[in-house]
Amino acid sequence: MTGSYAELFFLVFFGLAAVWFGIVVFRTHSMVRSAMALLFSQTAVGAMFLVMQTEFLGVLQLMMMATEMSIMALFMVMFMMDPGGMGAMDMSHQKRLSLRAGGIGLVAALAVSWLPDWGPAASNIPDAGRQVELLGIELLGRSMFIFESAGLTILTSMIAATMVAIAPRKKEGAA
Amino acid sequence: MIVELSVALSVGAGLFAVGLYGALSQTNLVMIMMGIELILAAALVNLVAFWRYLHPDVISGQMFVLIVMTVMAVEMAVGFGIAVARFRSRGSVEMEEARELKG
Question: Whole-prediction pTM value?
Fold first, then answer.
């Protein structure tokens, strides 16, 4: 057993919260509630990062997901036929197949998690400041190409998404 | 046995299963994207847990997390771009009505 009981307790607590809110996303009829449940789920994941002493990634996850889910909630209200869920519309299909796939995925992932011997737990965790320093050196050193590729990919996807979303201009002379 | 690692990996497994169910069962494009977000969140939890409990001395583990976060952002941007285009042309983002996209 490694670490403290407090770490284990909060890991279990936020883990259960993340999975529970993940389930709520697909159980509620209200699309706004779905987006909020996903926000809470991702926030719980961010809290798990903080419990696992990765402060930088935890805060990054919280900030990114708060913005992302707010945008998602806006899109839900714009696009959905019944954003408030008052009509209790069922927007799902092939439920039995999906449940089976989810169940098989769960069993397979749990088996891979629990069966192997992962070896002894590491104890020499760098503190938060040292982690950020090491990550900065990694990003601008050995992993610079990957980091720059990620930046370029985001830029390309932003341009592509904008181009796809722009309304096509009508040709001159067209009715 | 590292109990904390097992707990974190089990949470990852749970998020993956819920996300897979959502991505396969939903008919709305935005809801399908929510399922994919949950699957990517599962990957994030696993990566951080592996880094924290097995190799905290190798910072490349955190680099992987940043790449998965990038994939999440890209998925959202492209997905919403397609959703806007689809809504403009067909007035709906229901994937049941998008059978013509099948190759």
Answer: 0.90
